[in-house]
Amino acid sequence: MHTPIHLRAGGTSLVVAVDGGRLPRVLHWGPDLGELGADALAGLQRAALPAVGDSPVTYPQPVPVLPQLTEGWLGRPGLVGDSDGRRWAPYFREATHEVVDAAGGPVLHSGAHDPDYGLAIDVEIQVLAGSGLVRQRARITNDTATPYRVTSLELALPVPSDATEILDLTGRWALERVPQRSPFQVGERVRASRGGKPGLEHTLLLVAGERGFGFRDGLVWATHLAWSGNQVLAAELTPAGTRHLAAGELLLPGESVLGQGEVFQSRWQYGSWGAGLDELAARFHRHLRSRPRRPRSPRPVVLNTWEAVYFQHDLDTLLRLAERGAELGAERFVVDDGWFLGRRDDTSSLGDWTVDPAVWSKGLEPLADRVRELGMDFGLWFEPEMVNLDSELARRRPEWIFDAGHGPGLPSRYQHVLDLGHPGAYSYLFDRMNELVGSLGIAYIKWDHNRYLLDAGHVPDGRPGVRTQVEQAYRLMEQLKTAHPGLEIESCASGGGRIDLGVLEFADRVWPSDCNDPHERLEIQRWTGLLVPPEMQGTHIGAEESHTTHRTHPLDYRAEKALWGHLGVETNLLTADDETRAALARWIAFHKEHRGLLHSGEVVHADLADAAYRLEGVVSDDRAEALYAFSVVERPATWPPGRIRFPGLDDTRDYTVEAVYPGTAPAPGTVPPPWLHAGVTLPGRALRLVGVEAPSLDVDRSVLLRVVSTPAAS
Length: 714
What we know:
alpha+beta
């Protein structure tokens, strides 16, 4: 028996069985096991083997990263493919294994082949340094002259029998990332995305954990696929008691047919674990923050034109809006939809990426120049992958529009999809965007993507083009960023419809939702945060009456919920009164003062017994300071709220806790708990285990609590 391989990094251990000429089988994924010698590893493998009777098919086994029917696996298969009905049950064997100590973390390379089918597979598994994330992918090679069609390639990560509960997310437009829990029962829990992007209803992660797990307690494991196209995430419990999480690309017919020597490579499947969801999320946050291309400058406060003026563009109005924004402390001015040829509403002109001379007689240069004079950088909205049939581009090049054989298909927001698999369409987009970025000095692109790819047939033959479309979108982002170093891109797709580690290789932030209602944003941002750190989530202060829900909220609540991410303003500053603008300026100044903490610290959430309350915050890496928000989100059955306890602090330090009011002071007549008058100083252990009496607040109100370590007594 070959000694198992132990990969360790970032507080994670991955122990893999590599004996018998088989592909890797995971014996342990989770908390670091420390240094283990050969004898201990061999003993761990023996201890993990089940008792097997007369048929290994019906008994549990260590989870293979590529489950195979031919090895007795009756659950979800790792590879599905065929050659016109043959070569459909591969049997990869005679595996070889090599560990490489890479700079990003140790990597296991495993290769095997099926000599009868003429197929080869290479599996790459890595534990990432710093974050402790596990990621894996596989490559299938066809070594014969007979074409081989890959239908699906899903890799698996095991979870232990303690993981008895599943958490996934769903949603819709303006209400993304709604959590839902279910028992981990025998069978499959499958979440698929088929619209050419992950989608508003996408689960983001599939989480399995100990019963009743929360943000701070209970071991949890999750998988995520780094891909912005069709995909499937699955949790499976077999009748033999084996539990695993699988992920893979969801391929359309004929999207991957391999000729001789051709290769299909899966997308990276990521796995994270933690003692509670906060630790699980922190691994993703550390990974994203360690990207070589991550912007190093403070995230500039954004002023976006959309909810202020919609399509009603003119130079004088936007100049005044920019000047008002600069007065308040905005650092980036973004012109949203409505600037290009013929665009007066959303029924026409997508694809005609030329500045409209009827609105901008001198072009956008005067606005861009003035924005920079005011100390802001200049951003512009595009929706490159979409086209209106009522556009010069569609009339000129109808063959560039996806068509699966029934015409361009159903419109959505009057839109159809431009096929980036056509070299001419791709070149057209790059040339137009490249010219505008260069001539206007654009620092930031808000990249939208509203329509699903329901009928993405490549003209003239109708072959599916979804996979190519996503790859070409990535290529276009990469090419623009290479041509313009420092250019930043936001991933927006009707709000939060394209958020994943695939697009985040190229994008610098995501737009979690088109809803700026703070009541909804609290939850949307909280659950998006399972993957995305605060500085990469666009969080804007919207209008007093939400444009999506028509609820009204005071400025302080809107601003506090926007404080926690990449702050922006989307309200109409031209109609705001002096008092409102002064309060906005105070909130922006407060954000700038604390964004170093907000955009680098650890995100924490208290597990409160009453669902009417929320307590969450950010704690600095050195545990010297923290900022929390306590919120009331619905009317509780009992009153007052009781005590709140603070997660994430250092038990051994003393901390001073005080309320801060960047906008307006508490309303006259408000009766706070006694400690709130002058703050309180307590040990971190006491704040974690005992806490403080919560302020009594109305629904959809919050208070900011600043926590600072006090100097040790001499």
